[in-house]
Design brief:
74% of the residues lie in helices and 0% in strands. It is an all-alpha fold. The chain has a single domain (21-148), classed as TerB-like (Orthogonal Bundle), CATH 1.10.3680. The chain is globular and about 70 Å long. It starts with a helix and ends with a helix.
């Protein structure tokens, strides 16, 4: 009888939630879009870097990456905070993937040849929200700077 009651009230094991890769790509790209917009000017070089990063990070075609960028631009427009994007990324990316994303974000910031103080501040906030420490923040910046030169 006790076994029957245990089975009756047993909570089934939670199935791991499978991430929608397109939605994760949009979330990652939306962070880069937010950075591109922080100085109130979307530079074409920044948008091109965002597409390049989407192609490399998500193994998609250039056309798919441009579609992801279009979706991310729309989502970024409606976003009320960075948490909706960083929350999805934290739920599904490992530490290495988050570091690679931060490097891509730095590449966007470096696309116009300079780092604005607002860009650096926003990247710091993103790194904090992605649970990346200062060392990881600086390593991502150095890798992006090396790739840019």
């Amino acid at each position: 009888m006790i076994e029957y009651l245990k089975k009756l009230f047993a909570v089934p094991a939670a199935e791991p939630v499978k991430a929608d890769t397109h939605q994760l790509a949009i979330a990652a790209t939306a962070l880069m879009v937010q950075l591109a917009r922080v100085d109130n000017h979307e530079d074409e070089r920044e948008l091109q870097i965002i597409v390049d990063c989407a192609v490399n990070a998500h193994q998609v075609t250039r056309e798919e990456a441009e579609e992801i960028l279009t979706d991310a631009l729309a989502h970024a427009e409606d976003a009320t905070s960075l948490y909706e994007f960083t929350g999805q990324i934290n739920d599904h990316f490992d530490q290495e993937q988050k570091q690679a994303l931060l490097e891509s974000i730095w590449r966007v910031a470096l696309a116009d040849g300079r780092i604005d103080k607002y860009e650096e501040h926003l990247i710091r906030r993103m790194a904090d929200l992605l649970h990346l420490n200062h060392r990881e923040f600086m390593q991502a910046r150095h890798r992006a700077e090396s790739a840019a030169s």
